[in-house]
Amino acid sequence: MNQRRKTFHYSNRLLYILPSLIFLILVGGNFWGYKKAQQLTHDLIKSQCNSAALQTVTKLEFILFERRKDLEHLRSLWGKSSFNSKEERFRTDAMGIMSRELSYSEIDLVGSDGNVLSHVSLDSSGYRDTIISRLSSAQISQSIRRSKSALIKSGSKEKSQFLAVFSSPILKRGEVQAAVAGILKLDTLIKKIAFGSIPEDFAAEMVVNSDTVPLTLNSNSSGLFSAPDRSETEFKAAGLNWKIIVYPPKSGLLGVLTRQNRTYFILNSIVILFSSLLIAFAVYSFIEQKKTLSSLRRSEERYQRLTENAKDIIFRKSLPSGRYEYISPSVKDVTGFSPQDFYSSPLFIKNLLAPEWRSTFENFWSEILNGSTNPTFEFKIIKKNGEPGWLHQRNVILFEDGTPSALEGIITDITEQKSATREREQLIKELEKKNADLERFTYTISHELRQPLITIKGFLGYLEENAQKGQRTQLHQDIMQIIHATETMQRLLNDLISLNRIGLATRKAEPLDLSEIAQAAVDLFKEKINLKGIDVQIDRSMPEVIGYRSELFELFQNIIENSVKFTSDQPSPYIKIGTVRTGEETVFFIKDNGIGFKSKYKDKIFGLFDKLHSDTEGTGVGLALAKRIVEHHGGWIRAESEGPGKGTTFYFTLPFEPVT
Fold first, then answer.
1. Tens of pLDDT along 115-141?
2. What angle separates helix 415-469 from helix 472-501, to the nearest 10 degrees?
3. CATH 3.30.450.20 fits 30-269, yes or no
4. pLDDT for 190-226, tens place per residue?
5. What's the whole-model pTM score?
6. Is domain 314-413 given the CATH code 3.30.450.20 in the classification?
7. CATH 3.30.450.20 in the chain, residue ranges
8. CB contact set of 534 (below 8 Å; sequence gap of 6+)
């Protein structure tokens, strides 16, 4: 009773809290939307200002570019025309340019020392009244050398400021002589720039270096324009620092959108209020319905928690039919089959059993029907996706009147545990094999290195004895024997290092042309091959394989060296390198007509330090190294011979896909 009162109390609280919370969330969201809309409005107006500023910048740069073209044209006339006609031609073309482009106040030819060499203006004033003379000689010289413009302040007669634009300098014998200067009326230039670029109801101004010049008749000082939404664009042109500032009007699109956003915010708030009242009514109805269904839901939740949410399979079978009365949904995750599949057929689990486990399961089922079985049972199945799986089943037999009536149990998927067990056993076997290989390796090294050490020790004693007797010839022979023994040890150690390095490649396997690698290995013994007259034949159509270049080169090098060593005594020695097809497998071979070997030695020749002919040079590591390389690539290698004197053929396989 107390629990029900608490539930009723909490439900009444929810009736008031939830609608209020929803109302606050919706109002907050509405206010956020209002602020976002205001921000978007300001961003829209600011982007409009940015667009106007960028158009102005583009127009100014284009006009300055065109004026520079005019001045470069006049510069070229002065440089190309003869002395008698160049000033007349200069003045004629300058007058034409000024009559076409009204922003020019005057055009001057100015020397590098600041003197005006030629002056052209529409009012035909003398050289003394030129506007460019307001610049100092140093300013003119610097502007000519750098082709840099200069801003000229307004004089006593003019209200406007001027912009002096210079052409590239006129050179004579590599020295700067003069340049053409165009004096532009800044107010006329600004009107031309602002026309069509700045909207009529916007205000704009231009800052040239540190001087501010209005671009429009509207002024931001009137307070009718929005300074926070202004756009400022800075750039460099004609060697001067420029900044375009555009102000949007407060009463234009900005004012309209602001009023609309405010109106929508108020209307949305009213709608939210009524929506919250409807939600309160819906919450009340929901609480009443929840009270009616709560007891039924609690019983269902208990059942679901115990069975349907379990990872293990929970089941119940009737006996002796074996029909499933219940099986939990987790059976689909474990086997891939749905509970309906099990309900549709008695003993459906028999269809999943691996073939080798069906007879075992029949014995297990017979024991169940007799009322006696093991409490646990493990068996192997084939899942719906074709993958094998292992299950562990725990059983409880229920009896009625002493007769088995039902079987209840829990089945656990132990596939991963079984796999881990197999991997552990495999690792143990590999570790035992590696330990055995290491033991044989240690024994072989100690045995092979002992002989050179004994030789060195023995000849050191002879060395001391012969030194005391003064036998210099014998002393030299003793030293050579010691050197020979140390060289033998060095070769053994180098071969062991090469053998140990197999499988430690840091680079990835790559597609390789074996005919190219075989040719490179043959070239290594070219001198011996030519000296012994060995005919080497390489199949150029051998397929491409995936492997490690350095290791495969060493593979061919060791086998070819072995063939060269034991083929030299034949009347027509040859070495053939190619492929054969055996079934679906491509096998590589290296064949020679050398001394061959007895078939009982076909495995021994790949042993470490095992040499069939002790009187030949080498350490006996080469073929062991070749075997290790092939196995590292996931292939196999074997040697075949029909007998002594009948040659040897080495067969081996290499992967055509990336080595894993």
1. 888 888 876 555 556 788 888 888 888
2. 170
3. yes
4. 778 777 777 777 888 888 777 777 777 776 665 677 7
5. 0.36
6. yes
7. 30-269, 314-413
8. 564, 567, 568, 573, 574, 575
